[in-house]
């Protein structure tokens, strides 16, 4: 009877990825470490993700390097070990390091990248291991959104201030115009009253006034 176990590299409630079935044990032990975070600048078009591994008791043959990436609700097999898009993804391996080069970088490439190392000629469960994952963030979108929002707020504030100034000027002009009209109406009314009083004055009063003036 042969029992086969799975060298588990990642587990989630819905996803399991296994590298190779393993049977009997051996002395090969692999450890893989990755940087936790990688920030790609706004102007960056290419980025390189690295992982370091150590192999104890393993064969001298070159191990296989595998790369996966995980988004919020899905995952992609990038290089297992052949890369599915050789124009965008390239794997470089050395005795102690493995790197993944990503070209034509966009914000859609922001994800968590897992590096796996496997010695396929070994049956040890520890001969196939993955790192803890590197979170890649491509800068650009959030910055532009923040700058656009700030510019919009400034423009709206200036427009609001301009509207307040214009509205205030119109109100003052209206009040001044109303005051002038009221003053003119009062002046006309006083003039009418004076004219009426002059017309209603008796003639003998006018004669007395003329006599006194003389």
UniProtKB/TrEMBL annotation:
<dbReference type="InterPro" id="IPR013783">
    <property type="entry name" value="Ig-like_fold"/>
</dbReference>
<feature type="domain" description="Ig-like">
    <location>
        <begin position="21"/>
        <end position="131"/>
    </location>
</feature>
<dbReference type="Pfam" id="PF07686">
    <property type="entry name" value="V-set"/>
</dbReference>
<dbReference type="InterPro" id="IPR036179">
    <property type="entry name" value="Ig-like_dom_sf"/>
</dbReference>
<dbReference type="InterPro" id="IPR039089">
    <property type="entry name" value="IGSF6"/>
</dbReference>
<keyword id="KW-0812">Transmembrane</keyword>
<feature type="transmembrane region" description="Helical">
    <location>
        <begin position="152"/>
        <end position="172"/>
    </location>
</feature>
<protein>
    <submittedName>
        <fullName>IGSF6 protein</fullName>
    </submittedName>
</protein>
<keyword id="KW-1133">Transmembrane helix</keyword>
<dbReference type="InterPro" id="IPR007110">
    <property type="entry name" value="Ig-like_dom"/>
</dbReference>
<dbReference type="InterPro" id="IPR013106">
    <property type="entry name" value="Ig_V-set"/>
</dbReference>
<keyword id="KW-0472">Membrane</keyword>
């Amino acid at each position: 009877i042969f029992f086969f176990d799975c060298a588990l590299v990642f587990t989630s409630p819905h996803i399991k990825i296994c590298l190779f079935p393993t049977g009997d044990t051996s002395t090969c032990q692999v450890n893989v470490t990755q940087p936790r975070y990688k920030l790609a600048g706004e102007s960056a078009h290419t980025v390189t993700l690295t992982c370091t591994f150590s192999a104890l008791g393993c064969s001298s043959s070159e191990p296989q390097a595998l790369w996966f990436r995980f988004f919020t609700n899905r995952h992609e097999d990038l290089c297992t070990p052949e890369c599915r898009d050789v124009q965008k993804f390239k794997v470089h391996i050395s005795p102690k390091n493995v790197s993944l080069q990503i070209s034509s970088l966009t914000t859609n490439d922001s994800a968590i990248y897992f590096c796996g190392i496997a010695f396929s000629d070994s049956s040890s469960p520890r001969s196939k291991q993955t790192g803890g994952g590197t979170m890649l963030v491509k800068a650009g979108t959030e910055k532009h959104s923040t700058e656009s929002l700030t510019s919009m707020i400034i423009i709206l504030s200036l427009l609001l201030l301009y509207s307040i100034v214009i509205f205030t000027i119109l109100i003052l002009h209206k009040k001044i115009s109303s005051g002038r009209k009221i003053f003119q109406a009062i002046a006309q009314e006083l003039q009418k009253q004076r004219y009426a009083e002059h017309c209603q004055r008796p003639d003998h009063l006018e004669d007395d006034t003329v006599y006194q003036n003389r």
